Each structure stands twice: as C-alpha cells, then as structure tokens.
Hints:
By secondary structure, this protein is of the alpha+beta class.
Amino acid sequence: MSIFYQSRSEHIRFYTSDNNTYASHLHRQAELIVVLEGALSVTVEQQEYSLTVGDGVLVFPNRLHSLRTEGKSRILLCIFDSDFCHSFRHLFYDNVSRPVFCMESLSCHSHTAVEGLIHLTREFQRGAAIPENVILRSQGYLTLLLTDVFDTLALHKPAEYTDLELEQQLLLYIDSHYTEDLNLELLSREFGVSPFRLSRIFSRRLYTTFPQYVNSRRLEYAADLLTDTSLSVTRIALDAGFGSTRTFFREFGKRYGVTPGEYRRLRTAPAESLPRT
C-alpha cells in the first residue's frame, strides 16, 4: 500500500472536485467531504464507506484515509486546521466511531453552509491564494456545518494517549530524508525515543512497516525522475536512496508491474497508459 504524509501550510483549502481518486495519506488538518454528484468510496483507518449524493465524511487530523471514484463523482472538499473553527478544536482529540453523516439529517443552516462554500469556490482559482474576505466567510459557513455534523457523530475518548506531534515530526523528517540511509536506530537517536515506539507508529497507525513506508516514498520519487528527467536508471536508483540497482528493479517491479525502463517508455508515449497501482 502506498501512503504518504501530506504537509500543508494553509489554514484552509476548499474546492469542488470531479472524479476524485487519491491514494492513502494523512495530514495534520481535518478534512470534510460532501458528495454533490455521483458516488465516492472513502476509506478511513482501513474502514471503507460508500457515499452517494448528500452523504459526507469528516476525517479527523492524522487519520489515514483515501478516496476512490469508480464511475463519476463531484464533491465539495474542505481541508482545514483543527483550530480554524476554534470552538471545535477540543473535539478533534476524541475518537469517532463512524465519521460519515447525511445532509438530510442536518438542519437548514448546514444546507445554507454547503451552498455558501460552493459559491465561494467561484471567487478564486483552485491553487491560488484565498482572499482574506473569502477566508472569513468560509469560517462562518464551516462553523455552521460543523455544529450540525458533530451533533450526529458518536465521539469517545481514546483508549490510550497517542503522540500525534511525534508522528507528524517523524513523517515530516522521513519526507525530507528518505533518499538518505535511514533506519529505526538513527531515527531513535534523532527523536530520543525507542525504536519499538517508532516502529509501532507505522504498524498501528499507518498499517505498514518502516521499510515499506520508506520504500514507497523512494519509489514515488524514482517514478517522477523516470518521467521528468533523462537520468540513467542506475543514477535514479542511487538518487532515490536504493543501495543497489538489483533492489531497485525488484521493488519497482512489485509496485508498478513493469521495469523502470518500460515505465519510462510508457510515460513518454502519449498513446500508452500505465497499469493502475
């Protein structure tokens, strides 16, 4: 499974999206999705939810999640800091049994809020900086919507304390150093915690292992280099952090189903398409 930590600097980002499919990832922000057309499958912490028009999901910060559209979909997507609407900040430290909700069960204020957010998306281009007046309006609409949504969610205190700050720092560190020689002992010295504690973050929170996570980041980087540069496969293997081309070829074939050279040819031939990963 390919997973990654998505580092975002903005306090809020919201937009409508068509036919969204996004690999497993997590970030320090909350993510709210409302299905406007079609259907969408959302997986949160290995639990899959099938959403249709009028359904929504509120993904808490640092929860592993992914999106998949089989046919067609159109969604409103809001990604925001947990204290963007500060009245709800403390609730994001709880656990939620089922993060989905239905717009039909919410008040008229929530419907107004969704319509208002959709209208605001037309006032700026996706990817561009959001104007300050739009941010203020979105804060009001999101507050209305969250008021209803939290009323429908069954929240409970976590069974044990999890160090979310350590998790964020760890994944950010790996994203900055995955092309280097990394191991749990080195990270243990860097963060001053035991290798076992670090290993448990990957097994219990990300449902993978430390080597698999690092290899995933390296393979994604190598795939980008194969597509965007003319570097040799050997050079790319070393630049991506693999100790040998033999290891690189083996791991690349397991992930993409083709050799690095075949991947490059497929990527640079417009008429060809890559197998799904």
